[in-house]
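User: tokens in, sequence out, please.
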């Protein structure tokens, strides 16, 4: 919801929070698009590295070394 530009007040109401402070405590988990982009890039790089490693193992097994 926060990524959909909903206010913290509205998000807190939907979640049933009694205090805006409760919503604010948890808001940092979803309100940092830069961090989310960094984590996605990290996962993508790990997958790419694993794919390269597997290709190298296949080439070594096939006698390309």
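Assistant: Sequence out:
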């Amino acid at each position: 919801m926060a990524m959909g530009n909903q206010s913290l007040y509205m998000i807190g109401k939907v979640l049933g929070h009694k205090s805006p402070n409760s919503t604010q405590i948890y808001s940092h988990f979803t309100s940092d698009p830069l961090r989310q982009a960094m984590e996605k890039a990290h996962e993508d790089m790990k997958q790419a590295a694993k794919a390269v490693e597997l290709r190298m193992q296949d080439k070594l097994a096939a006698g390309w070394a």
